[in-house]
UniProtKB/TrEMBL annotation:
Protein known as: Protein kinase domain-containing protein
Pro residues bias: start-end ranges: 397-419
Region (Disordered) residue spans: 377-425
Organism expressing this protein natively: Macrostomum lignano
Coiled coil: none
Length: 493
């Protein structure tokens, strides 16, 4: 098991006692669908939390990469989320912030784990409700939004889970059609409205989601009732039929095989290489289209160039020998576009969508390896230094100077060039202009937005919590959020 270490300065936490309460609460939870907390220490005003590391990413990142998920995949993930929620509720814990950002997906096995217990509360005695305002606006239940005298309890997690399920089948955050999270909160609190379920959903999927959105909390389905829903049972049978490999295996043996499917890194690499070869022609077509939209340096025979590049990368994925990458002529942008092309292939196949998170991790590794290999090749091509006899002490001592020479100023650095974000050309121009003039972002910060598939429109519909989860400094997040609020005020007034 790999361990992730989260460091939090006690000076930056307004309520240190609440932080330690969260640590104590999560350390008592042991379930396969809950991120495990292994321990914590406090040193020199810094709290270090040791947690189980999940190889992959959040459900939000997966949906951004592949779009709407198939119904059988949605049911497979929903079953695991509900198992984790049911365990929490049995232990009298309300999570209060269930959303796709707080759902982690194992890139190799598809195992789901619930994380972020910063807003969770344990219900005590006979009082099965809390009366404090917490959560993410777009995922809030009506009782949490209104915060009445009776408070709210376990049903609020079921509503938030329903919003997450709709996000999986639609590929869009709940209430994405509304301009601001505050507008979504108003619709939920005033009209008890739930997010729109896509028209293309099956009747079983639609009924499953609607059971999560019963306005009265006392009549809303519980996690145990949802786990017995026909939608989850039918999808589980489809998965068993899809992955069954003949023989007289019973359903339990098939389920065990599903859970172990592609769990090893080497097996996943082989499967991904098989995918690259099976859909080679379509993959190269998608890849070349993305590079052409960027105005890439690939010229004449782009198909042959990309085909050779794909062979080299596939060979490295299987054997992982550094010499396979020496002399490789590519860049980070080409590898990023390759990831987008693979995501498009996966979106139209019956393969597990969480594979794209594993492929992204492989591409990240390749970016570093390609850079190191290119540097090694350049160093090897440098002419050797001439071997000369060492100077004597008299020769090596320079004559004293009465006036020390003033050092020449270093030549000015060339202005940085803005990288092309992972959006269309018009969106890229709008984002680059707005980021430079209004938000004051640097080219590196703009590249971070592009790497996470943000464009100007999606920024106008995001929450501040979404920005905080990006690898940006806190000052940059504050400046970016102020610019977003200014633009919202000017556009939606």
């Amino acid at each position: 098991m790999k361990i992730a270490v989260k460091e939090i300065s006690e000076d930056r936490v307004p309520h240190v006692q609440a932080l330690h309460e969260e640590i104590r609460l999560q350390s008592r939870l042991h379930h396969r669908n809950i991120v495990g907390l292994l321990g914590s220490v406090s040193e020199a005003g810094v709290v270090k939390i040791f947690m189980e590391q999940v190889p992959g990413g959040s459900l939000t990142a997966l949906i951004k990469r592949v779009g709407a998920l198939r119904e059988d995949t949605t049911a497979h993930y929903s079953h695991q989320i509900l198992q984790g929620l049911h365990y929490l509720h049995e232990n009298r814990i309300v999570h209060r912030d269930i959303k796709s950002d707080n759902i982690l997906v194992n890139a190799y096995s598809g195992l789901i784990k619930i994380t972020d217990f910063g807003t969770s509360r344990r219900l005590r005695g006979f009082h099965n409700a809390v009366a404090t305002f917490a959560g993410t606006f777009r995922y809030m239940s009506p009782e949490a939004a209104n915060l009445g005298d009776e408070g709210y309890g376990y049903p609020t997690d079921v509503w938030s889970f329903g919003c997450t399920a709709v996000e999986m089948v639609s590929g869009q955050p709940p209430f994405s059609e509304l301009a601001t999270p505050q507008a979504a909160l108003f619709e939920i609190g005033m009209y008890r409205r739930h997010p729109d379920i896509p028209n293309g959903c099956s009747e079983a999927c639609r009924n499953f989601c609607l059971r999560c959105f019963t306005p009265e909390p006392g009549r809303r389905a519980t996690c145990a009732q949802l786990l017995a829903d026909r939608f989850l049972a039918d999808a589980a049978n489809q998965l068993i039929a899809l992955h069954q490999q003949g023989g007289q295996d019973g359903p339990q043996a098939s389920r065990r095989r599903i859970l172990k499917l592609y769990s090893r890194d080497c097996e996943l690499r082989q499967r991904l290489c098989d995918l690259l070869q099976q859909d080679r022609q379509r993959l190269i077509e998608y890849w070349s289209e993305l590079l052409a939209a960027d105005g890439s340096a690939f010229k004449a025979d782009v198909t042959a160039e990309l085909s050779k590049l794909l062979d080299r990368l596939s060979a490295y994925m299987l054997e992982r020998r550094p010499e396979q990458l020496r002399g490789l002529q590519t860049n980070a942008l080409a590898l990023r576009r390759l990831g987008q092309a693979v995501a498009k292939i996966l979106a139209g196949s019956r393969l597990p969508p969480h594979w794209i998170l594993a492929f992204d991790a492989l591409l990240e590794e390749l970016r570093g390896k390609v850079g190191a290999a290119s540097a090694a090749t350049s160093a090897a091509q440098l002419p050797p230094m001439s071997q000369t006899a060492p100077l004597s002490t008299a020769q090596s001592t320079p004559p004293p100077l009465s006036v020390p020479p003033s050092p020449l100023p270093p030549p000015p650095l060339p202005p940085p060039t803005l990288p092309a974000p992972a959006v269309s050309r018009s969106d890229a121009a709008d984002l680059a202009e707005w980021a430079a003039t209004t938000a004051g972002l640097s080219p590196a910060e703009l590249l971070t937005l592009a790497d996470n598939d943000w464009d100007l429109d999606s920024l106008m519909h995001c929450d501040k919590e979404d920005l905080r989860r990006m690898p940006l400094r806190s000052g940059v997040v504050s400046r970016l959020w102020r610019a977003i609020e200014q633009r919202r005020a000017s556009v939606f007034k």
